[in-house]
Design goal:
This protein is mainly α. It has one domain. It has four helices and no strands. α1 runs antiparallel to α4, α2 crosses α4 and α3 runs antiparallel to α4. The longest helix has 28 residues. The chain is globular.
Length: 126
């Protein structure tokens, strides 16, 4: 039951938290170091992957459709390469940080856990 609530509300919650961190950074508000440097990296992949999943479900008109694990992994690798290798070479706002890559993959694991767990529960009810 608890994971059902997490599944239902994590996207809006994560979006609000990520936007709040962004606004705090934008207006130079003081944030704890972990939140300032790492929180949005942890929230990034669950947000991106869930939005991608909604888009695919809409396009295919199938609300049960899930993004394959392989595609989720590839998207996470591409995000890590783009934000941690490419962008730091061209924009001073971005810095290469191995911890960010770890957090992208932890976010991926959360996404897979909550989405697959919910899929298993729905399958059992049928």
């Amino acid at each position: 039951m608890f994971t059902t609530y997490i599944h239902r509300f994590y996207l809006p919650l994560f979006c609000v938290v990520a936007f709040t961190v962004y606004l705090a950074q934008r207006y130079s508000a003081s944030l704890p170091e972990l939140a300032n440097n790492y929180l949005n990296d942890l929230l990034c992949m669950p947000i991106v992957l869930k939005i991608c999943q909604y888009a695919v479900q809409f396009i295919k008109s199938d609300k049960q459709l899930k993004i394959p694990i392989k595609i989720s992994f590839i998207l996470t690798v591409l995000y890590a390469i783009y934000f941690e290798l490419v962008l730091p070479q061209f924009h001073s706002r971005y810095t290469a940080d191995g911890m960010d890559v770890i957090l992208y993959f932890l976010g991926l694991l959360f996404f897979l856990w909550i989405e697959r767990r919910n899929l298993d529960r729905n399958t059992m009810k049928s």
